[in-house]
Amino acid sequence: MPVRAVLWDLDDTLFDYTGSDRAGALRHLRAEGLLAAHGGEEAALERWRAVMETEFARFLAGEVGLLDHRRARARTFLGTPLLSDAEADAWFGRYIAHYEASWALFPDSVPVLEALAPLVRQAVLSNAATANQERKLAVLGIRESFEAVLCADELGHAKPAAEAFHGACKALGLTPGDVVHVGDKLDIDALGARDAGLRAVWLDRAGAGKGAGEEPPPGVRRIVSLAELPELLRGTIGFGAPSTIR
Ligand SMILES: [Mg+2]
Prior knowledge:
The protein is an alpha/beta fold. It has twelve helices and six strands. 50% of the residues lie in helices and 11% in strands. The protein has a six-stranded parallel beta sheet, sandwiched between helices. Bound molecules: magnesium ion. Magnesium ion is lined by residues 9, 11-13, 183-185. GO terms for molecular function: hydrolase activity. Its cofactor is Mg(2+).
């Protein structure tokens, strides 16, 4: 049974989130003259991430809103609890500008989107906020590749919940067995998609150069580059009928 649609994860699958975040934080900390004070690039980045993770956990737990989350990151990183809201907002705003100036796709993203365009329908399924992802896709110049951008905030469910995958399939008017999900997280993306009845492709970029790597779990196809995807989908007979992939 041919695949009718590819449902894409975005961050760290098509969009180099980790690289963009690193480059943006470095540009910001350099521009603010903060690298030396924090022991150089790697130490400063480590602190940047530690502060982000701690504060983001509070945001996810609903303890603080987005604005206060950003202010807390500025105050904690700088070690200046008395920094005014306006100063903290300005500091974080300068980081956002550097981050967005660092946005980049992976080199294999546009080629695969173009190669698949005549063959299958394509849409995005992301756990991030719709407004953020819509804007990101527009800035990166690939919004036109997708007939829909389906995100957890509007679906009401986040991956790996089956409801998130089913909501996306329903939005496309397809059954899960007609749809391939491609994502970088083995648990959230690949296993979630498999367990929801979709065909699951796990993009293991870190596995490139490591040889065959570990066998992926049953029902999950592993690729190390998006360049492998068209071939995998063309050979969809070998990709596995829904009855065997479950
Ligand atoms: Mg991802």
